[in-house]
Amino acid sequence: MNSLNSEAFVLFGQHILWSDMIGNLFGLAALALGSRRSIWTWPVQFLAGLILFGVFFGHLTGSAGKQAVVMVVALYGWWQWQRGKSQAEDGHIAVRFATWRERGAMIAVAAAGTVAVALLFKAYPTLSWDPWPDAYIFVGTIVAMYAQARGMVEFWFAWLLVDLVGVPLNFANGYAFSGFVYVIYGALVLWGLRDWWLRSRAAAQPALEGAPA
Question: I need a surface site. Which of 140, 155, 202, 210 has the fewest CB within 10 A?
Answer without folding.
Answer: 210
